[in-house]
Each structure stands twice: as C-alpha cells, then as structure tokens.
Amino acid sequence: MDENSTFAIVDLETTAPFKEDGHIIQIGISFVKKWKIINNFQTMVNPGVKIPNQIVDLTGIKNEDVQDAPYFEDLAAMIHDQLSEAVFVAHNVRYDFPYLNGEFTRIKMHRLRVEYVDTVQLAQIIFPTIPSYKLDELVQHLGIKLPRHHRADQDAHATAQLFLKIHEQIGQLPDQTLATLLDHSVSLLGNTEKIFSFAKGQAQTAHHDPFAFKTPTVLPATKKQLLDWISDKKQFSNKKVLPSPILRPRQETFANIFQSKIANKKINAYSVFSRPRFGKSNAYLLLADQLAEKSARVLIIEENVQRRRLLFQKSQVMLAAHKDRFAIPITRKDFVDLDKFNKSLSIEESPTRQLAKLRILTWLAETKTGYLHELVNGFPEQLFSLFTDQNPATDFDYYKQAVKVYNFPAIGITDLDSFFVTEREFSKNYDLFIFDVGKGFSDLLDHDLNFSNQSIFFTQAEEYLKNWYSMRSFSNFESLLASLNN
How far lies 190's CA from each of 11, 181, 300, 360, in Å? Predict the structure, then answer.
C-alpha cells in the first residue's frame, strides 16, 4: 500500500451471516485513487434462495429485484479482478472481507489476498467524541448524504466519502500526535494503521520511540465548555425501566428519627445494622432528601459503579419531585492523567486497550476539559482506570481546573473507589457521608482516611434483630471501623 494505491470501498447486502449459510444479494464498490472517488460499481446478485422478510424490510431489496440478476458464480471472476489489485476498505471490514472470501472459497476460487482497512476503527480514532459509529448515524453527523442505508451501492459511496474525510482529518493532526499514532497502531485490524502514513501529502515514518510523545500544550476549558460536557454525562445509562420503589412507614420513621440524632454534633459517626428486607437504600435516600431540604449536603458512597448507577436511578423514580438534587458528582476518575497516559504508551497491550489509547491520543489534541466522558461511545468506563487522574498531576491537573467552576450536587452518589481518590474535595463539599459498602469494608480499613465529616455506615445484620434496625454511635469514623473489625 502506498499513495498510488487504488482503494476499493466495498459494501455487501446479504441474506444472513456467512456462517448461517447466507448469500450476497447486492455488491457495491466505490474506487478511490489519489484521494478522489474515480468510479462506482454496483450489481444485484441472485442468491439462489428466498430473501428473508426481515432482510427485505432492512434493505428494500425484494425477491423480484434479484430473480433476473446474475449469480455470484457469474460475477466472481470480474469482482476478483477488480479487487485483486486494490486495497480492500469497508465499514466493519471483519464482516465484508471474510464474507466475500467465503463466497470465493465456496465456488473453488482463490481467496483475495490483499491489504485491508477498517473505517470503523479509523473513525473511532480520528473522530473520538462522535456519539455513534454506525454508518448511517456517523455520516449524518459528518454531513455526508446517505439517501438509503442498507443498499450496497449507497453505503459504499458514503463510506468512500467517510474514508476521504478521515484522510483529510488525519492531515490536520499535530505532527507529534501523528508520529505517535504510527508508533502504536500495529494492533489495528488488517493494514488499517498504514493510512496514518499518508497524511499531509507525504509518506510518514514511525519513530519507534515509546517515550517520544509529548502531550500538546493544553489550555483549561471555559466554565461554559466544562459545564456543557458535564451536564451531558450519561448518568441514567441503564434504559431498563425500574419498578417504582415503595416507601414503607419503617423507612420514613428511620429518616425522621435519624434527623434529630445527626443534629447532635458531639456524635460524629453512626453504624446502622438493618434486618433483611428493611429497605435500607430507600431509608437513606429519604434521609438524604430530608437533610437537603434543610440545606445540608449529603454524599452517599456505594460499593461499586453498578450499585452507584442503580441507586441514582432509584432516586430519580422514588423522589421524582426532588430528582434534581441527586447527581453523580465528578471525581478524579473522570479525568485523564497526562503522566499516566504517557507511561501507558510504553506498554503494548490488548488490541482493545491499544485502540483506546489511540482514541485518547487524538482526543488530547482537541479536548479542553480532559473529561473522559466526552468519549461517549465505544469506550467502556472499565478502561478509564488506564488513564484516569488518581492523584494530583505533575503536568496538568484537569480535575483541579474543573472543580474551580463545578457546583457539587446537594446529594451526591458515588462509588467507593471514586471516594478514595476524591476524598479531599468531597470533605470540603459535603456535611454528611453515608456509606453502604458491604464487602468494601476491608478497603476502608486499608485506606488512611482523614476526614471529620459526620458519617453513617450501613450494613446488614448477620444475626436476628428485634427491631428493623439498630444503631451505635461513635466519636469518629475510625472508632466506628475499629468496632466493626473486632
């Protein structure tokens, strides 16, 4: 592959996946040379089987549309010739390339042995903050017309325009970003990484020095930029509708009694043992809401991200009238650590992690916030730990810039790991901590916590309780933990 190569952008419409005995019903190819579309080709293909109704609905291609079309056997030699001297490009190349080769094998022809490129991975890297990489949604976002999705000729032509837009965008990357992409893209599908070598009208070469990358000069975001990104955070990401929680009298009684106890500032910590089926999360959500009504600020700490998300969703349903009081506050885990990212580049990891690094790399050339939730699609939160700001940065502290303009919610819901790395900021912004961490108790013992905020530690009683809950009070949180550890 070089700058004089012809790129064949291919799309197939099929009756089913190849492994499910599928067959091709339409082939579309757009040819690109010298970074211009020079030709388009399409043909219907008679699959020799009835087209399933769901495929008719998806593509609009009916059985009568293909009944007089040539069979793949009649087209194979011509298709093979057209593609054998080109670089094969597709949007999700793992589908189209093996499918076509499977058809060649089925009719006893040689497989295509050509270089191939995936525009999904390229788009994820070059446009890291776009909300969707499905072809129709992606090209619409980029202003590329696609009149009829799931028609091979139109999808191929739209993908060719996407391919050219990607190439154009690569040429606008800073030189050091481009050099680092070349150094760390070998794990991409097929020969996708070679596209980075054709930027700026001249061949580029890799530096082969994992420490060569220096992050471009970064500037803090304006207050509006930061708050716009944070307000878009997908806190209600689980689309499953939760049943409406029912507040029981015992939970309301608990909240009312505990309000008066917390007013005693001489007592700094409480442990609450509750019977099974007490509904402790309902009880402390209601308590938090009642305290917020009196201008107190409450942080609820759940054991993990999943429980944090579920509790947030419950707050939105159970206390809908006051749902704006509840939010998942920003933490250091939400922001990139430039030092940590630079170190990660020197480690060759799984293809999934390497792709994440490449996305971070191009994103750093454009972000003003360092807020990882700008990467809203195809970037699991589990990967954040590879790059997140666990401690104050030595280079540029995005989180420190963020908290200057961020208003912490009246009632925050976070997870234990996030609490550990953001304890100092949380201590400044909340009056009361409510811990419901269960198995995370040992993690609390291992950390050198140093806060004076009033705290409640919830746990489920291991032995039968006469009442729905029992409570003990302590002068400080350390004494509470020590009592539970005995």
Answer: 17, 16, 47, 21
- Token digits for 200? 């700026």
What whole-number distance in Å separates Cα of residue 409 and Cα of residue 329? 7
Instruction: Write the DSSP string, 79-105.
Output: HHHHHHTSEEEETTHHHHHHHHHHHHH
CA–CA gap between residue 361 and residue 185 (Å, rounded): 11
**Strand ranges for 184-333 from DSSP E:** 269-274, 298-302, 326-327
Tell me which residue of 68, 69, 63, 159 sits closest to 119, measured CA to CA.
159
Is the dihedral angle over the CA atoms 338, 343, 349, 351 positive or is it negative?
positive
Kindly report the number of other CB atoms within 10 A of residue 323's CB atom: 15
pTM reported for the whole predicted model: 0.80
Count CB atoms within 10 A of the CB of residue 477.
24
Assess contact for 60 and 148: CB atoms under 8 A. Answer: yes
Q: What CA–CA distance (Å, rounded) separates 401 from 454?
A: 28
Reduce the secondary structure of 32-78 to three states and give it as a string. Answer: EECCEEEEEEEEECECCCCCCHHHHHHHCCCHHHHCCCCEHHHHHHH
How does pLDDT run across 70-102, given as a tens digit for each residue? 999 999 999 999 999 999 999 999 999 999 999
The span from the CA of 288 to the CA of 254, in Å, is: 12
10 Å CB burial of residue 34 (0-12, 13-18, 19+) is exposed
CA 234 to chain centre: 10
31 compared with 463, residue with greater pLDDT: 31
Instruction: Tell me the C-alpha distance between 56 and 124, whole Å.
Output: 30
Residue 167 gets which letter from DSSP? H
Structure tokens of 444? 């609390």
